[in-house]
Amino acid sequence: MKRKALFFVLSLLAAGFCCSGAGAQDLPSLENFLSALPAQSDIPQASGAERVSASPLSGEALFAYLHDSTAITAPPKATAYLSAKKYMFSVADNAGCGGGPGVTCLYSQVCAKGASEHGEDYKEVGDQNGDDFVDSDGMNAEHSWPQSFFNQALPMRADLHHIFPTFMKPNNTRGSEPFAVVSRADYATNSGSKLGAEGFEPANAAKGDIARAMLYFVVRYYDQNIKDGVNYKDFWTSRVPMFLEWDRQDPPDAAEKRRNDLIAKFQGNRNPFVDDTTLAGRVGVKVFQAH
């Protein structure tokens, strides 16, 4: 309890006893009073998303608030890249398939059974995703914001809010291409993910996940070196309206919300765009484009 609030409560108690004619021997001791208060950890705390939703913030003010409220609080050693990948495969993205544990490739929407911490153990059985390739080497970690754009620096490299499990073929096919709406595919999966002249288009079921990951990344890391060797206008600025549209078209499902909760336990922050679907619209296209 804050000092001012505590002083106010004690003042009221003292006043009450005084006015009722109670003697000093009837007053509770400060030690007993404080011991009866709930511990700070026992008091329900509103999440950052809940506090924002209840406020009138929008535009640049909301963007700044979200930047501050998404700071990672876990110790750096706990969120090293290897540790993050192991947690992703074994916990955060292991939502199960076929009645047992398993991980779903974001781009292919194919689930590979297993409970391993290692991506290479999640192999494609035959050409399940229909891209004329069997991913016998398993899965990898797909950075929605390519690692080369921030020189593989931490904490960006290990931040699971923008990293997803994908089979290696679609992962390598996407490479560092911008996300886009593709008119003619040179590569495609049965799920609808495809590569074309415009860039890489994720499956409809993954569009919202990708959009919220990208919005989060810019809000959290716009003030870091995230533009190395990239045409920023083509990769981000011109595509902001598309991301906001994908965010509206494909709202968070139970799996994405579960993932957000589990990542928060691991690295100490949340993706607020998963918690509150009004935030992106309240920040607005122009503010996102300005960062």
Structural notes for this entry:
With 291 residues, the protein is mostly helical. The protein folds into two domains: 1-44, no CATH class; 52-289, no CATH class. It is built from 13 helices and seven strands. The chain has helices at 3-19, 30-36, 48-53, 59-69, 81-92, 168-174, 204-221, 232-235, 240-249, 254-267, 272-275, 279-283, 285-289, and strands at residues 102-104, 111-113, 139-143, 163-167, 185-188, 194-196, 199-201. The strands form three sheets. Strands 5-6-7 form a three-stranded antiparallel sheet, with no helix packed on it. A two-stranded antiparallel ribbon has the order 1-2. Strand 6 (194-196) and strand 7 form a beta hairpin. Helix 5 (81-92) packs antiparallel against helix 10 (254-267) and helix 7 crosses helix 9 (240-249). The longest helix has 18 residues, at 204-221. The radius of gyration is 24 Å and the shape is globular. Residues 1-46 have low confidence and may be disordered.
* Beta-strand proportion: 5-15%
Secondary structure: helix percent:
40-55%
Q: Structural class from helices and strands? A: mainly alpha
The helix/strand series, from N terminus to C terminus, equals HHHHHEEEEHEEEHHHHHHH
